[in-house]
Fold this protein.
Amino acid sequence: MTHIVDQVSFGAIVQVRDRLLEQQARGRKVLRIESGDPSFDIPVIAREAMEKALRDGHTHYTASTGIPVLREAIFNKVRAENVLDVPSVDNVIVTSGAMNALYIIFRALLEAGDEVILPDPMWTEIAENIRLGGGTPRGVRLRAEGGYQFVAADIESAITPRTRAIFVNTPHNPTGAVLGREALESIAALAEKHNLILISDEAYEHVIFDGQKHVSIGSLPAARGRTISVFSLSKTYAMSGLRVGYIVVTDPLLLERMKKLVRCTVNGVNSVAQYGAAAAINGPQDATRAMAHEYQQRRDILFSALEEAPYVEAFRPGGAFFLWARIKEDWRGYDGKSDDWSMTNYLIDKAGIGSAPGSAFGPAGGGHIRFAFSCSTEQVTEAARLLPDVLRKA
Ligand SMILES: Cc1ncc(COP(=O)(O)O)c(C=O)c1O
């Protein structure tokens, strides 16, 4: 039998990144639009709070579920902004990024053989964390014709007696599709009908465009009491390296299991980062709004370029910072291959442009390519200038 950890990959994006860094080391200019790390600085108020925390000696163990001031800030935020029905601060668990939250959630929820339904394509680490929790991921294909929406009817046909949960992510990585209230209501109704748990990954809740408003599935009546919500400060406050995320869970047994898992894994997030997180959440949100505005401008720049380029059909994302494109049938390929890796390799070799091959995100991602516009506007603009021409020369 294969060891559970041996089922986890090292990740396609890491391979792309390594190749780009190798080229960069040889003196070549590269454009890092393969992965999603915000280019912005953290809010000043968060930086100052961390400097103060250091000066004040807040460098000791904290309560493993988080410092009270941060849990209180999160509790107030999720009730007011996400309209979650959370009874107490005790239902909030601070984690080392959303990644750590996801590990804990699947480990706490699943028993061997339990199935979790998730969108296909989906950010790779979701399926991996389901497997690490002993479960089986069941992908439901998102379709270009349907604007990559996660459709309740398709989800229902994937439900089996072993289904334990439905994983929802809006705005979505890798497509940038946003699920509106109606779509979320049908998914919540399905979860209620089949008595399933909903896991809602809202890492991109604040990276949303065109005046749309993010809706948290946990706020919908049918989802109450059956939703585990996951949030991250990585995108909202560009705090990706500081590793702060959180879980909101109301089910008492799951809450208890998650607290045990936090204690036995990270045992409390970096104390200084927690003070920064509390200040960011309690402070003015103008930096977050300004970032979303700039991401939208980058989206427009990159989307126009891809519309001009041959061989790709781009999807205009409503949120997150990814541009997902279908590779058209007339793509002749590169280096003897014509799959999505061939376009990724072609762009690295010919122009030093990074991308992620769609197949990395699940079987339905094959034949697609993902670009990220989280690096600087300057890099995005340069990539947009080069892309149509480089592809024309293929
Ligand atoms: C959908 C989604 N969820 C969660 C995360 C993890 O975020 P972090 O661990 O930085 O909080 C990411 C990061 O890329 C993501 O794309």
Remarks:
- The chain has a mean pLDDT of 96.
